[in-house]
Amino acid sequence: MINETFREVLRNEGVVSIVSWGRGEANVVNTWNSYIVVTDNGRLLIPAAGMTSTEADLEVNDKVKLTLGSKNVQGLFGMGTGFRVDGKAKLVSEGAEYEMMQKKYPFQRKMLEITPELVKQTV
Predict the structure, then answer these.
(1) Beta partners for 116?
(2) d(CA 100, CA 106)
(3) Beta-bridge mates of residue 69
(4) What domains can you pick out in the chain, each with its CATH number?
(5) pLDDT tens digits along 15-53
(6) Which DSSP string corresponds to 83-96?
(7) 111 φ, ψ to 5°?
(8) CB atoms within 10 A of CB 55
(9) What value does the mean pLDDT take over residues 55-61?
(10) Measured in Å, how far apart are the chain's first and last C-alpha atoms?
(11) CB neighbours (10 Å) of residue 94?
């Protein structure tokens, strides 16, 4: 699901938008491409410094949507590409992956773990 173009986008800085929703309106938080770690089995690990509204949403609904991109990566029609990711998420505060992310991003409060169900290149 995670292909080389997606990985190339992560190697180029850009904004990532993460959308969650619980009982009310959708909530959007942002992070950076460079903060995303892809595991060997294709999960996305993201440091969460705040994300308290996201955390409340995930208690009700574990689905999230992400968008990310870079103008520096060849896309479907020219330079610049982006992706949409739909998946299930949880916030983690212990374990080996959490500890690895804590060393890399000491500002994290918890780690957002996303299991993609759909990864689609959009441009």
Answers:
(1) 87
(2) 10
(3) 82
(4) 4-121 (2.30.110.10)
(5) 999 999 998 899 999 999 999 999 999 999 999 999 999
(6) EEEEEEEEEE-SSH
(7) -115, 125
(8) 19
(9) 97
(10) 17
(11) 10
Assigned token pair, 11: 């190697």
pTM of the model: 0.96
Helices and strands in the chain, H and E counts: 3, 7
Q: What is the mean pLDDT of the chain?
A: 97
Residue written as tokens 């903060």?
Answer: 35
> What's 107's DSSP letter?
T
Amino acid present at 80: G
- Split at pLDDT 50, 70, 90, the class of 75 is very high
**Structure-derived torsion over alpha carbons of residues 19, 66, 114, 64, reported in degrees to the nearest 10:** 30
Helices (H), the chain: 4-10, 52-60, 96-104
Q: Are 39 and 10 in contact (CB under 8 A)?
A: no
Q: How confident is the model at residue 94 (pLDDT cuts 50, 70, 90)?
A: very high
Q: How are beta strands 79-92 and 63-74 bridged, if at all?
A: antiparallel
Confirm if 81 and 123 have CB atoms less than 8 A apart.
yes
Q: Residue 16: is it exposed, middle or buried by C-beta count within 10 angstroms (0-12/13-18/19+)? A: buried
